Write a sequence for this structure.
């Protein structure tokens, strides 16, 4: 009798309740949400300082009303239309199911992820955007711990990129249908093989997207190490070829793979939270998933910059503009950074030491 009473004492019942409540333990969603909160906090700090500095439009070399300029307008319009359509669709789905749909969380996460697009320039200016885009000077000049003296001078396409990232909600939807079709045709296919098959069209799509920007000289990555195309007018790195495919696969996988309850990894073990807190945590977790995919890949690419060769001299002025100086190219002389990576005798400057 004594044993029975002790086994069911209030203290023991409390311990039993804790042991029987696994949903309250931290899982991947909570850890990702914590990372997401830190990343968003860093963004808010950086963007706040950037806005207080009065951002400006970078116009050096802009080739107004040229084919490249009109091409940039077309990309911006397409990005806005597709992203807006995806947002409206996600909101309608949320209303239909009576809760925040995953695609709405993903849309928000991808919007926030656009902040990290040029983090590849952390050490050195490896990646350029054209001043033909609607742009403002980038915010990295106000980011804590960002060492490159070029930070803050490159134009950031605020319309094209901020809306382009949420467009990947559409790709994730299309991939979901393709992957479901593959599963029906090949029963029992493993997740790894499914993603490998999905990588092939993703790489093809990434190549198309790259050419849409590369051929009209709207972006370039001349400092990204191993090149597939290397001419005085064009460079296309293998890192650029792989980027869209590999990154988009991580987004598609997040949306596609669900558990028996239809929940993604960023939504699980949150039942003990209120609906509002559940949405906040899962959205932050989704943000971390998308943003970390960019940061991790870009970090690897940034290291290839230490093996860059001399940048091409055939770029139009609206592309490398004020970022760094290319030897033999007078239109880039007098930059804030100094000689571009790969230039003869190049040594990497640190913020505060550039000429």
């Amino acid at each position: 009798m004594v044993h029975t009473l002790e086994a069911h004492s209030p203290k023991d019942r409390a311990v039993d309740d804790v042991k029987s409540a696994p949903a309250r333990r931290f899982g991947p969603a909570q850890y990702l949400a914590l990372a997401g909160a830190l990343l968003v906090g860093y963004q808010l700090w950086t963007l706040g300082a950037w806005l207080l500095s009065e951002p400006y439009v970078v116009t050096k070399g802009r080739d107004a009303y040229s084919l490249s300029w009109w091409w940039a307008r077309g990309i911006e319009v397409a990005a806005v239309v597709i992203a807006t359509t995806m947002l409206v669709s996600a909101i309608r789905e949320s209303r239909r199911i009576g809760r925040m749909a995953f695609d709405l969380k993903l849309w928000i996460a991808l919007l926030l992820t656009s902040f990290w697009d040029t983090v590849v320039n952390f050490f050195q200016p490896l990646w350029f955007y054209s001043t033909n885009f609607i742009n403002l000077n980038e915010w990295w000049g106000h980011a804590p711990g960002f060492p490159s003296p070029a930070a803050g001078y490159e134009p950031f396409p605020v319309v094209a990129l901020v809306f382009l990232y949420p467009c990947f909600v559409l790709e994730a939807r299309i991939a979901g249908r393709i992957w479901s079709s593959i599963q029906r045709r090949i029963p029992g296919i493993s997740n790894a093989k499914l993603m490998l098959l999905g990588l092939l069209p993703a790489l093809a799509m990434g190549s198309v997207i790259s050419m849409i920007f590369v051929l009209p000289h709207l972006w370039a990555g001349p400092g990204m190490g191993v090149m597939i195309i290397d001419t005085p007018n064009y460079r296309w790195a293998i890192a650029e070829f792989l980027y869209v495919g590999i990154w988009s696969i991580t987004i598609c996988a997040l949306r596609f793979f669900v558990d028996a309850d239809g929940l993604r990894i960023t939504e699980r073990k949150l039942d003990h939270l209120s609906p509002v807190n559940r949405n906040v945590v899962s959205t932050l977790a989704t943000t971390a998933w998308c943003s970390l995919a960019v940061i991790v890949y870009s970090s690897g690419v940034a290291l290839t910059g230490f093996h860059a060769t001399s940048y091409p001299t055939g770029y139009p002025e609206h592309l490398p503009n004020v970022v760094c100086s290319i030897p033999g190219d007078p239109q880039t002389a007098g930059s804030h950074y100094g000689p571009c990576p790969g230039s003869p005798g190049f040594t990497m400057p640190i913020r505060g030491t550039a000429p």
Notes: The two ends are 85 Å apart (CA to CA). Strands lie at 128-129, 136-137, 155-156, 219-220, 227-230, 235-237.
